[in-house]
Task: structure prediction
Amino acid sequence: MKQAHQIKSTLKKSKPVARTAGAALLATVATSMGMGALGIVPASATTHGATRAHSVAKVPITLWTLSSNPPEQKAETAAINAFNKTYPGGDVTVDYVENGAYKTKIAVAMSGHNPPTMFYTWGGQIFYAWVRAGEVMPITSQLNSDPAWKNAYLKTVWPLASYNGQIYGVPDGGPGIELMFANQAVLSKVGVNSVPTSWGQFMHAAAALKKAGLIPVSLAGATEWPEMIWLQYLTLRYGGPQVFNNIASGKAGAWNNPAILKAAAAAQTLAKDGYFEPGYSAVHWSSSQTDELMAAGKAGFQAMGDWDYGSMLNVAPKFAKSSSYKFATFPTVPGGLANNAVVGEPASYYAISSKASPAQKKEALAFFKDVTTSRAWNVNYLEAFGNTPDDVNYAPDLLHYAGGTQNLTFFRMAQHATYLQDYWDQNLPSAVVTPMLTDIGELFDLTMTPQKFVQNMDAVMAKNG
Amino acid sequence: MIGRVALRKPRITWWAVWFMAPACVLFVALVLVPVVVAVWLSFVKWNGVGAQHFVGFSNWSQLFSDATAGASLERTGILVAASWVIQEPIAIALGIYIAGRQRHRAVLSALYFLPLLISGAGIGIMWQNILSPIGGGVQYIGAHVGVLGFLNSDWLGSTNLVFGTVVVLVAWEFIPFHTLLYQAGTRGIPSVLYEAASLDGISPLQRIRYITVPMLRNTIVTSSTLNVVGSLTIFDAIYTLTQGGPGQSTRVFALDQYIVGFNEMNFGYASVLAVVLGILGIVISLIIIRVTGFGRMRSQAEGI
Result:
């Protein structure tokens, strides 16, 4: 979800999948005809046989991942092209798909038993459904036989990518966490000298901003998950981790919990008091308009993931690098049960299709290992665009780079959080997530009461649990 | 003699079947097979991956307690009625107007047909930006031009306004198409009728009332059928404009079906909704044809 929320471009750059699939088929046929597991074909079989004796046949594999902003995709592609040059027969092509479209595209590919060789995933329940259906290749033994590779990642990454004791994915990016971002220059106008750390201080600052004719909170309401950030954090603060754990484990009536009701009421107070920008229900995160409101000095706060830094670098680089762009952990609540806990994910992942040929699987594994632990990927790509590295060995290097301090802070916050709670919309089944997001939207539009919200969600869980 | 008579008798020769084959193959592959699959899926529980479990009528019985589907069907009903009431009179008036041969009418109609050239998805994305509460053109004009102050409304964000916005944009998208039908229909009216009427001293308004509109009867039936079935199944423009939101305020039936299928990954129940929508479309168009007598294939130009 970390990268998921970074999307700038809604353009879907699809490569002709059929063509690569056809080529993959050819390659499979070639290898199965006994021409060598690695695709070493006799010189006579290649087009330029006379001049390129013992040349290595290309093994085409495709990666489906999320699109992000153009400079980011360019850096990502550069790292992939480097792999294609060094790996014998390396022929990785990438399809960048916009976040919302990706969820559908990969699901349809899975239902057609025709996933790409490698694909992006958030792990969790949706991923487990594909694992159960036998669509995903387990990679436990390969990781265990290569401790240096396995230990390059944080230890907390494995549960989300594991099912029944087997590991099915490797991190493609570092941890992501959700925070409270602020424009300090705006806060200073109403005499608030630092980002509030308690809910009381926050509400006080919001009221002052509203009175001064500023927008207290910018919110991409049309996208719905930015609203979920508020609800999830408040629920976690009031009720502790157990509230969501009960939901995730399918306990009956788990939504009808005082902490959720209290969180929903607090969120509705923000809407009732007019603390969001006018028309927030029609504002999309992908339009970057909420970041623009912050950067233009019109809005004070935005609850968002650490990916907002990368997004802000793209939208308003000057503001992103200024001392006005501040962040803090989400405010604590009085008597809260999890005031130090953080909402975030240890990583997002790449996984391999179980339908791939042996040569393709071998290349994909090499790709995962070489690329995700390379300096080009961790520092030149991830770090340069405000992401945290997936390989822990590069974390200390962050300090040497502009903006690296921010990233290192994010990284350490995730690494040292007393509790890291996965995003609600990634760790519940699709049949629950979709109505949940719609209902959260109605909660923030004030067309649904907190009581009705928890009743609806319990009914949805009972039907799909 | 006998030979000649035999030749005149209509014969169906075996090889003529081959002329029908491509159409039949396409119809079976692209229409019948998907329909059969949808009906089958409506009886199974399937999340898109993994096994399909036959569950009998349990998906179907869910339909009657599904408040979301009920509300979205109601929205579709309102959209269909509103689209017909708004689009047809405007399209008839415009169609008659641009049927004239003057240059200014041709220029206007060329401009007016522009929405017809944009895909539904493009229309949704375009208007989402134009109506955006931050930096959108419509609200900006409303805020800066005094008399147009009403434009400064929350067109896509307010749950009270957004459905009206959708109805108007759907009309904007489809009126040109229906106008085109009426233009062609008007031009097809034999000029002898007007010549005869003018000898009787008919006024321009009477021409429209007593000749043009009655002669457009079949066009009205065609256009209405397309209009009703089109708004019953409309998806692309609304999906790209609002994704059915805010909340569920623009989630029409076709959108609900998509969300249940491709977001909730509940293909069994989504197929129930698809079958219902398909049956509704067929029934409604049959009713229109029946009531209007369109199926009798009688020409209005009889006796001319």
Summary: The beta strands of chain B are 44-45, 53-54. The longest helix of chain B spans residues 67-98. The mean pLDDT of chain B is 87.
